[in-house]
Amino acid sequence: MIRFRPWLLTVLVLVLVSGVRAAEPAAEKPAAVEPAAREPGQAQPDALTASVKEVTGTVETRPAVGEPWGPVKVGMNLAEGADLRTGFRARCVLDMVDSLVQVEPLTVVRLGELARRDGQVRTRLFLKHGHAAAIVEKERIESDFRIVTPSATLSVRGTKDAFVGFFPDTGGTYGLGGPGLVGVRNHVLGKKTLCGPGQKTNDRIQAPGQLLQGQFLPVNLPGAGLGPKESFAAKRWHTSNPLPGGLQGPAGPPNLLGKNLGQQKDPNQSSLLNECGNHSGENGDYPNGGNGLM
Amino acid sequence: MRTVILAAAALALAAMPAAAAEPEADEPEPAAAEPVIPDTDAQFFAELGYKPVATASDTARALVVLVSEGQELGGDYDDCRQWLRRRDILPDAWLSEAGPAEAATKGRLARLLCKALGIEGGLWMRLFGPQPRLALQECAYLDLMTRGATYRHVEGGELVGVIDRADRLRTTGSPEEIPKLEGEPSGAKEAAP
Q1: Domain boundaries, given as residue ranges, for chain B
Q2: Mean pLDDT, range B139-153, rounded to an integer
């Protein structure tokens, strides 16, 4: 008969648990990311840099997101992924091999792509807001040059003085001052518009209702941006006007599941808000999950 | 019974060091972010572009930069308001008494802009002064601002755009004028025969 030994069982359990624990971190480690397989015949892109030709005023750059910003000086080389921002009356001219780009005041732009592949220089500028103008040499260089704004993309087909401007309130303006041709593809509709010399276009494609909503309804704000009198005045968010009589039910303002044009529930009735205090977080600011228009 | 107790104790012993050696201990905790006042105008306007709403503090500083033509970058909120008082832009009905985090609206901004740029407007504005509604109409007519309700809040990027257009209008006569760019890229010289 086999005799049962408690110490043996204990040792076995210890060994098993240690083995499982030792194996866990290895399983949690992310697998090394291998470079994407290239198609046969596809050339390795040569990374290019943009050299700074002129600087006026305060112009700052950072090599990548998360890196510290530093001043831009003439002769500096900016690699792909660099961000650039200009101050008041500050300008900067970049030589990007196939193009000259002038970054105008109060602009934030990223050098999204700048590389040569199969003899073609591929350039993508991501314009967050501000203005930029470009001279693109397509007669002597094979070039694929585009400026991307939040609402449209300007592609250049051999031209001088292509320009782009974008601000959130006015939208984008795209055009051509010199000879050549530019195409503007709208990101929402996918429709492309061509601009010849002296022509310009914009990306305002909002329906009339949306346009009026954008112009006349208050911005959906976090509570921190409001004064104490504005935040919940007259039991309504972001306005001091009282609720229209027809909408006032016996138990207070109705909650129409986000279609109530900003009529929110009283935060003091919410247990979550009572714990966190008013305006302490996103849930606290928008009890309906932020679905309201105000 | 003793076996079970021994096994449980062994499990607890095995789990304790493993729990203590969790990888969380290796990762440094992010330092608590402190509110930083932007040092340069480039930083101020770039960060302003990401804000969902422009505050009174942002408006005051942007106006100082605009009115001084970039010579003054403004300090804190009170310094900016003091500077604007010396230029007779303040007092007005809002900014002179607003808290720094109070939201700017289109009407308030238009009124300040008209005072800052000396926009006189038409007949009614000359008679009644830069009331928000009249001032906004005048700014929209000059393409400085988009039309809308006077009570609508101003986004951060919108304020940046207004300052940009106001300065372009003042210097070039058109809010969208871009100076002509001359020259050719370096690649064209290399590719030239």
Answers
A1: 41-171
A2: 91
